Amino acid sequence: MRTSSNPAFRNLPGGQGGGYATFDRQGGMMGGGAAYADARASQVGYGRAGAGERPLTVDDVVTKTAITAGVALVAGILTAVSGAYALALPAFIVGFVVSLIVIFKQSSNRFLVLTYSAAMGVALGGIAGLINNAYPGIAFQALVGTAGVFVGMLVVYKTGAVRVTPKFTKWLMGAMVGVVVLMLANLVGNLFGFDLGLRGGNPTLSIIFSLVVIGVAAFSLLLDFDMADQAIRAGAPAKFAWYIAFGLMTTLVWLYIEILRLLSYLRQD
C-alpha cells in the first residue's frame, strides 16, 4: 500500500477489489481480491463494512467532501464580509487542535470533521479578508484557482496522465520534505535577522518558491485521490467518507493559502 503525503491518509484501508465503483482511472466495477481487501483493511485498523453496514462508495466521498468544503466556504465568506478578522488566529488554533484529534484517532466523527472545516473556513476568511482589503478581488481569485487545481488534478488522475506509482510517491514525499525544510530554514533565518528571500524578501525568488509549493500541493491531491480509491476498493464502511473528506480538506486549505500568497506577490508593485 502506498503512503500519502497527507497525514490524514497515511493509514487508509487499501487493497484490490471490493466490487464498488471507485475513483480508479480504469473505470467500471472492480471485482475479485475481496479476501485480500479484508486482510489489508484489518491490518490498518479499519475493517470492511460489517453486517448491516453499507460499504463506502465514490458518491459518499463526493457528497461528504462537498459538505465539508461548503461549510468552510460559508464560514469563510461570513467572516470576510463581517470583518471579523480577529477570529482568524483563534479559529486556526481550534482547527489545528481538532485536526490532530482526527488524525491521531483516525476518527470518522462528522462533528469533528465539520468543526475543523468551519474553523479553517473562519481562519481563511479572516486572512483572505485582510489581504483582500489590500488587493481587491484576490480572495475570490484564489478560490477560483484552488477549485481549478482540484478539478484539474482529478481529471489528471482519472485519465491516468500521471500515474500514482511507488516511485512517484517517493519523489513527491522527497519534494515535500524539501519544501518544509526550506520553509523552516526561512523562518529560523528571519528570527535571527537573515532572510532567505523565500517569503517576500526577494520578489522573483518568492514567486518561484510559491509556484513550487503549489505544484507539490497539487500533486499531493493525486495521492489523496489514490488513497481514497484504495479505501473504497477495500470496502470500508460508508461513514469513513467523513475521514476521507477531512483529508482532502487539509490539502485544499494548504493549496488555497499558497495560491493566495502567490497572487499577493504578483499584485505587489
UniProtKB/TrEMBL annotation:
<feature type="transmembrane region" description="Helical">
    <location>
        <begin position="138"/>
        <end position="159"/>
    </location>
</feature>
<dbReference type="InterPro" id="IPR010539">
    <property type="entry name" value="BaxI_1-like"/>
</dbReference>
<protein>
    <submittedName>
        <fullName>Bax inhibitor-1/YccA family protein</fullName>
    </submittedName>
</protein>
<keyword id="KW-0472">Membrane</keyword>
<feature type="transmembrane region" description="Helical">
    <location>
        <begin position="111"/>
        <end position="132"/>
    </location>
</feature>
<dbReference type="Pfam" id="PF12811">
    <property type="entry name" value="BaxI_1"/>
</dbReference>
<feature type="transmembrane region" description="Helical">
    <location>
        <begin position="84"/>
        <end position="104"/>
    </location>
</feature>
<keyword id="KW-1133">Transmembrane helix</keyword>
<keyword id="KW-0812">Transmembrane</keyword>
<feature type="transmembrane region" description="Helical">
    <location>
        <begin position="240"/>
        <end position="257"/>
    </location>
</feature>
<feature type="transmembrane region" description="Helical">
    <location>
        <begin position="205"/>
        <end position="228"/>
    </location>
</feature>
<feature type="transmembrane region" description="Helical">
    <location>
        <begin position="171"/>
        <end position="193"/>
    </location>
</feature>
